Here is the input.
Amino acid sequence: MSDFANEVTLDRSNAYLRLEEKEIETAYDFCEDYKFFLDHSKTEREAVSTSIEIAVKNGFEPFDPLKKYAPGAKVYLNNRGKSVIFSVIGKNGAKNGVRIAAAHIDSPRIDLKPMPLYEKNELALLKTHYYGGIKKYQWTALPLSMHGVVIKRNGEKVEISIGENSDDPQFCITDLLPHLSQEQSVKTLGKAIEGEDLNILVGSRPYREDDEEKVEKAYKLNILKILNDRYGIEEEDLISAEIEFVPTLKASDIGFDRSMIGSYGHDDRVCAYPALMAMMNLEEIPDQTAVTVLTDKEETGSDGNTGLNSAYLAYFIEDLAQAEGLAVRHVLSKSKCLSADVTAALDPTYERAYEPMNSCYINRGVGVCKYTGSRGKGATSDASAEFVGEVRKIFNDNGVIWQMGELGRVDLGGGGTVAKYIANLNVDVIDVGVPVLSMHAPFEIVGKLDVYMAYKGFKAFFEV
Ligand code: MN
Ligand code: MN
Here is the structure.
């Protein structure tokens, strides 16, 4: 082959074949911290707390919109405990635009209905309403833990986490035994387990009075008594609550070679954590103000005041702009964003769902998607050639191993994320993110080098 041929051939080889052993070790160390983050951030609220804890240790302080910050100032804005913005004020402030990394910290899960508790056939159960796009059958016969907050009658907030410690009880959605599943097994996959079947088993011991008198609804009552003894909550308090059931599974290495990580909630903490750490570890004060936003509600379409379809990010940038005497529209129009969300990794078992030439692969580096959407690029923000070129150059110049991919074969489905909401603010946006196997399952898998390359990519983007 000529030199020319060597130069123009896309280098799409595995990142393990392209990195020095030392950098692989650095990537693995980064992933150990990521695993810790995962196990302590199983809900959007916990991810906000964990992130702020890390930021405060790194000198970040709560943002005051009325204050004028000097270059190098580190601030965070906590939006209702469910989304959060971190920012380092740049040498040139916001006048040439800000640089944004956006990721989400909510993950598919099982939420409680407002009035969940009931008993039937001597068992106590909870009614649920699933959150995000799940394959319901995957969430049965799996240990679950309970996380969330309850606002009591007197206004007091109680935080709950049951199931994560080794001596905690856990919870479970039951499934029908195969011996009696003749009717269930001929149903389609999407119908075999229905939404109203996702009931969580929480008890089987009846409440008993000392005088042995029979008590009404003793199984339900026993659960209420335990909740009252432990948390001081009563049944009506569950109405003003956000309780989420998530897999109890801990993050762990996958494979004999430990080259991958399995965990609940990689989507999208696997982008959120690198985006957060890129901001924490900036080598020096960046030229342009850097913004990392970790948002809520992506899995349900980004609506609501903690999702990125709300104005909270634009308002924050407006505050930065005003402090410098700038109009926010002029700041936004010069701003650039990496919209960070997971993408599908090609799965050899289901290869037919992918177009191999334009798919992402585990450990080929951080994935870049020019556009998402479905059918004829429906509902997408399609990054311009100019911006793709710019990001590609940043990554290439800074040793970021990256790959280009689409989410599966054309017309097979599709998906999208927060990119379009930021693009609609007149910001240049491109999707980047870590490829995932078994996306949205209770246990998802990512490649360690891809996680690290996401971090390196965000950092290079901020440090331009
Ligand atoms: Mn996502
Ligand atoms: Mn998702």
About this structure: The two ends are 35 Å apart (CA to CA).
